[in-house]
Amino acid sequence: MPIQTTAAYRGSQPSFLLDAFFRGPLVASGIFCDRKRRVRNRFFMHMRGDWEGKRGTLEERFTFVDDQGQSSHAERIWKLEQIDATNFRGTAQGSAGDIVGIAEGAAEGYAMHWRYTVRQPVGDKAYNLRTDDRMYLLGPNHVINHSRMHFLGFFVGEAIIEIHRLPADEIEAVAGYPNPETYR
Description:
Layout: H1 18-21, E1 24-34, E2 39-52, E3 55-66, E4 71-82, E5 87-93, E6 98-108, E7 111-122, E8 125-139, E9 142-151, E10 154-165
Antiparallel strand pairs: 1-2, 1-10, 2-3, 3-4, 4-5, 5-6, 6-7, 7-8, 8-9, 9-10
């Protein structure tokens, strides 16, 4: 079922084109806050997007630093498909949490919105979190992402992420970013 919440942004500039922004190397950093707005995790990401026609792959590699200063690593690989000029869908798997079913979204103007359920590992358990994910293109190489997560209908937390596209030749320069030892 298509998402209609991006219609208010139709015609705004710059245009958020999924296959243009998520192409090549990207870096991101963000925080995850619990329902009391306490920061529980800081995280850093390396991403790489590749597209062939209307199908794309987005690889995400995370370094998490919890509120105790302990770092961990995870990854997720998205398989994306542009359905038409506005709508897209995708699936993802990885140690950062598999997507349950299909993620569906839309992008109009500078806004993108998608919804999905992520099977989020927490300690020895995993929880299905319903995610409402909104992204806003600030410029051709910069996105702000705000995601809200719910479990059994109850708000459990949110992530705020800043994403930057990199020139293709800079991917080697950031291969060591971030160095988890810096954040202990």
